[in-house]
Amino acid sequence: MGVQSVIAHARRRFLAADNILAIGRGLKRAGSRTLDVPAVIFYVRKKGPNSHDAGTRIPRMLYDRDASGSVDRSRWFRTDVREVGTIELVSSGRQCSSSFRKGTASLVFDAPGGISREVYALTCAHVIGDVHRGTPGFSRVKLRLPGSGYARGSRLHQISQRNGRLEFDIAIARLDDQAPVVPLRGVPRDGTSLARFMKPPLPQNRRVKILGYKTGIVKSGRIVGPLHTPVPIAFDAGALLVRNLYVIEDFTPKSGDSGGIVYARDRAVGLVVAKFSRGGCLFHSLYSATKRLFRNSSLDLDVDQIF
């Protein structure tokens, strides 16, 4: 039936082990080399003496399953075990100044077709709100822009947790009329003009760029692939299981990078949410997260009309 059924079975079999954080898919690695070999990837807090020992013995291959759930030994997938430590948010903490909270804007855009020019900014919900409740922790926000400097605005809507699970860590704010001129749909630090979204499924092993807002430096990394399990992340008011995350290797965000944009050429790919303490970045598909955000809100905005 394919890798989806294999991962579904692996979730039931292995995720009860405390050392295993998540299961996803990507390409197998041999030392520092990435092989052109599809694999089911186990992300663990710490490896044992054996590379496939993560407290629970992980087999070197997993067999496919047929429609009845029986093992199909004619089809199998290799496994790979990545030691990642813990998962941590990369916001700057609770940076409050009177009624404002500071954060980073991922994508800045104006409302298409509007009579008056209204400018909006997307960022992580944990940066400018409270993911544990539907009402905002801060109704007024201060966002760092993709260019330089800050703009103030009003937080409009966010996605909040339900039953301890968070589908997407994303929020939207409307910038004030007196906000400075901002680089709409662009990454001016390297002169990139964004023209469209990269829609899922996002390609494995794709090189991407990430704008590190804390340092103002554009970094590069490689998309490993999606996680097929929710991962535990500690927020201010307690841990939540966060879904719909992708992994980037060769790049680890720093404090303050939450909400930073992931892009490839002229395509907006994702927004940075968290990191693995041993190296690596976790992000949401910007298109999927924004589409869900608009669908769940009363805002008259359409993700397909942003570009």
Question: Care to describe what's here?
Answer:
This protein is mainly beta. It has three domains: 3-83, no CATH class; 94-184 and 290-305; 187-286, Beta Barrel (Thrombin, subunit H), CATH 2.40.10. Helix content is 8%, strand content 44%. It has helices spanning 3-14, 125-128, 286-295, and strands at residues 20-30, 33-44, 61-65, 71-83, 87-89, 96-97, 100-104, 107-110, 119-123, 140-144, 150-158, 165-166, 171-175, 186-187, 192-193, 196-197, 207-212, 217-226, 231-235, 238-242, 246-249, 261-264, 267-276, 281-285. The strands form five sheets. The protein has a seven-stranded mixed sheet. The longest helix is centred in the N-terminal third of the chain and has 12 residues, at 3-14. The chain is elongated and about 65 Å long.
